[in-house]
Amino acid sequence: MTRGMELEVLRFSSQKDSTNGLLFDVTGGKRKFLCYTLEGEHREEKVAGETRIPAGTYRITLRTTGGFHGRYLKKYGDMHKGMLWVRDVPGFEYILIHTGNTDEHTAGCLIVGDSQQANFGDSDGFIGSSGNAYKRIYPAIAAALEAGESVSISYRNFDFVG
């Protein structure tokens, strides 16, 4: 596998039910904004489907089995080559990058969008135009993977020390 794409999630707001972030392509040392992100909340102890993954760097591969894959193949047709699967996360399995709007749609995964509402106070956070963001960022990531390139994603916390 050749050196390929490097992605980075900068988490900037962690509240009681969700974490807001920004997704960048940092390949070659240049930072290019791709979209907004939403994840579950930070917890010291993992709760299945309710906890964001630990900060760190992970590899991404394509997952071509499972319910998400079938739904996305039907929804996105030839564009869809497999789910973007964040691999080897300690204590987590089947972490995907996909569409959604609230922390209820994350189940530990990373959802992407073109707009974002703050997750302060009583707000759980919201991400909008998720399908548009996904259709924009997915093809380049999938193409890199299909070309045999490595793709990694780094999660960094700027919202607290943790």
Describe the structure.
With 162 residues, the protein is α+β, with helices and mostly antiparallel strands. It has two helices and ten strands; from the N terminus they run ββββαβββββαβ. It has helices at residues 67-76, 130-146, and strands at residues 2-14, 19-25, 32-39, 56-63, 83-86, 95-98, 110-113, 115-117, 126-128, 149-157. An eight-stranded mixed barrel has the order 1-2-3-7-6-5-4-10. A hairpin with an 8-residue loop joins β5 and β6.
Helix content: 10-25%
Strand portion? 35-45%
How would you describe the shape? globular
Main beta sheet: 8 strands, mixed, barrel
Ranges with pLDDT <50 over ≥5 residues? none
Query: Taking strands numbered 1, 2, ... along the chain, how are they ordered across the largest sheet?
Result: 1-2-3-7-6-5-4-10
Instruction: Provide the domain count.
Output: 1
SS elements, strand count: 10
What is the N-to-C succession of helices and strands?
Answer: EEEEHEEEEEHE
Count of helical segments? 2
Mean pLDDT, to the nearest integer, reads 89
Distance between the termini: 32 Å
Alpha-beta classification = alpha+beta
Rg on CA atoms, Å: 15 Å
